[in-house]
Write a structure and sequence with these properties.
By secondary structure, the protein is α/β, with parallel strands linked by helices. About 15% of the residues lie in helices and about 25% in strands. The protein has a 3-stranded parallel beta sheet with strand order 1-4-5, with helices on one face. Strands 2-3 form a two-stranded antiparallel ribbon. It starts with 9 loop residues before the first strand and ends with a strand. The mean pLDDT is about 85.
Amino acid sequence: MNQQITNGLYGLVLMGGKSTRMGFDKSMIPYHGQPKSQHLFELLTKMLEESYLSVRRDQERVFTDKVIP
């Protein structure tokens, strides 16, 4: 599955929730040695032409500039 899909599909990791029931930001749960949101973003960028993070303005992450507030 390391082959890139080049038919115009873009990836979007939705992480703009408030996580009020969980009590902390779910996107930061450790997953394969890194925050879950970063792991998912990296998986998408390997397979798709472009990938983005959809976040609340106070959630902007530093591991990519591909952010949609």
